[in-house]
Amino acid sequence: MKSLPVIDISPLCSESGDDAATAAVAASIRKACIEWGFFYIVGARPRHAATLDALLRATVALFDLPHDSKRALAASLSPLHRGWTGVGGAHNCSSSGRGGTGPDNKESFLLGAEGGASPMHGPNPWPSADLLPGWEADMSAYFSSALAVSRALSRGLALALGLDRAFFEQRMRDPVAQLLLLRYPPAPPSDGGGGDGGSNSSAARRVVGCGEHTDCGFLTLLAQDDVPGLEVRPRAAGAASAAAATANSGGGGGEGGGDDAGWVPAPPLPGALLVNLGDLAEFWSGGLFRSTPHRVFAPGGADGRRARHSVVFFCNCDYDAEVAPLGAETGMGSDEAGERGAADAGNGCGVDGTSATTAGRYICEKLGLMFNE
Ligand SMILES: O=C(O)CCC(=O)C(=O)O
Ligand SMILES: [Fe+2]
């Protein structure tokens, strides 16, 4: 059974070294971005492994705070909607889901780039040091570390598109980046009665933690604890046939139809981060790279006693970075154009429109935000 690719990005983590190893990583990234829009990375700076543990511990500590302490940090109090949102609250950072999957079942806490570089930069509602000693330092360390990994990856993405390796990095000087901490509470035990819509598929019996959506920005890095729940639905021909095989192989319990068809699990892989591309990357790459739909189910079954925690780093480019769909330089060959398939021409990324924009404008439009520039 085919599953999501794993790519060792260590050759991208040094400033120099434009050698065969780098070219091989760029080729793997190109293939993964065309076929899946998702891939695991290993080999990021060693510093990252240490900050990952601290990150997950700090995330649990935040959500374990008493309700009143979290309410005092509510996102509704912040002009940039940073801070805490309880279960059933708004979905923060992604373009809207499709397919009527119902309300999200998750608690979230949003942080973002500080300073005044753009209307999307600003102060974070940090919990006080009395409440959570060292929390701000742990989160800030992870934020910088995730940004360094994103910059390294951006070199691979640029090479994968036939561009100068610094192409995206030069547009990530003080990027619009956000860190979203998530807790998915376990699904209530099923007494076999429920089910929505009378469907018999396992997807219908499971509780949605985060409905199907694509991310709207450039690059997403996901750290997850050891509780699974994330699934992706690749649209390219090669990966899609692997997904169909997964749906039919007994893992999902479906019969090739219903809500499970085409979905592939993206379970936690110790020491790895999961990367996915957002709508902005698909738009910028002229539709060559994928912004792939994904969804999360609340922990159930054997994992049903524990909440799932994940931390999503949405790395965009600088607010005023100019963006226009790339053309011939990406070297999209007829094979790759065929790989895209005719059926999936649009996922709302605006790839068919040729108008140039800026990263900030693109994201604000997707999120329905308006700022006076
Ligand atoms: O929690 C996860 O694994 C993914 C969350 C996600 O896709 C999002 O917040 O955009
Ligand atoms: Fe997402």
Per-chain topology:
Layout: E1 6-8, H1 20-35, E2 38-42, H2 46-63, H3 67-71, E3 83-85, E4 107-112, H4 135-160, E5 177-184, H5 202-205, E6 208-213, E7 219-224, E8 230-232, H6 237-248, E9 264-265, E10 273-277, H7 279-284, E11 294-297, E12 308-315, E13 322-323, H8 334-340, E14 357-358, H9 359-367
Parallel strand pairs: 1-2
Antiparallel strand pairs: 2-10, 3-4, 4-5, 5-12, 6-11, 7-10, 7-12, 8-9, 8-11, 13-14
Bound molecules: 2-oxoglutaric acid and fe (ii) ion.
2-oxoglutaric acid (AKG) is lined by residues 93-94, 180, 182, 210, 215, 222, 224, 230, 294, 296, 310, 312.
Keyphrases for this structure?
alpha+beta; 28% helix; 373 residues; eight-stranded mixed sheet; single chain; 9 helices; Jelly Rolls; binds fe (ii) ion
Please tell me about this protein's structure.
With 373 residues, the chain is α+β, with helices and mostly antiparallel strands. The chain is globular. The strands form 3 sheets. It has an 8-stranded mixed β-sheet with strand order 1-2-10-7-12-5-4-3. 28% of the residues lie in helices and 17% in strands. The chain has a single domain, classed as Jelly Rolls. Helix 1 (20-35) links the parallel strand 1 and strand 2 (38-42). The protein has 9 helices and 14 strands. The chain has helices at residues 20-35, 46-63, 67-71, 135-160, 202-205, 237-248, 279-284, 334-340, 359-367, and strands at 6-8, 38-42, 83-85, 107-112, 177-184, 208-213, 219-224, 230-232, 264-265, 273-277, 294-297, 308-315, 322-323, 357-358. Helix 1 (20-35) crosses helix 4 and helix 2 (46-63) packs across helix 4 (135-160). Bound molecules: 2-oxoglutaric acid (AKG) and fe (ii) ion (FE2). 2-oxoglutaric acid is lined by residues 93-94, 180, 182, 210, 215, 222, 224, 230, 294, 296, 310, 312.
